[in-house]
Q: What sequence folds into this?
């Protein structure tokens, strides 16, 4: 009985692949893994430099501001979804 179920599932899966192939038609779609070019990464690392104190402070302030705004927005949504239904 389990062999029949396995064969049925396999046939069903192959049927879905066939349907997809029919829908794609003659598009000749080839999907592969992205290529890895280590030279691009080395070039970026050569151009990168350590930020000075002022740049670091600016980046830190912007990051803290962004995290704070997202936290406030999350808290407002939480309050609206938990406390507001209790009122009505």
A:
């Amino acid at each position: 009985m389990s062999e029949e179920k396995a064969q049925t599932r396999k046939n069903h899966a192959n049927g879905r692949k066939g349907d997809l192939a029919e829908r794609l038609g003659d598009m000749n779609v080839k999907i592969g893994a992205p290529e890895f070019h280590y030279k691009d990464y080395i070039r970026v690392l050569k151009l990168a430099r350590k930020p000075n104190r002022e740049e670091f402070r600016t980046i830190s302030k912007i990051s803290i501001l962004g995290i704070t705004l997202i936290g406030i927005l999350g808290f407002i949504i939480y309050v609206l979804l938990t406390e507001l239904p209790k009122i009505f």
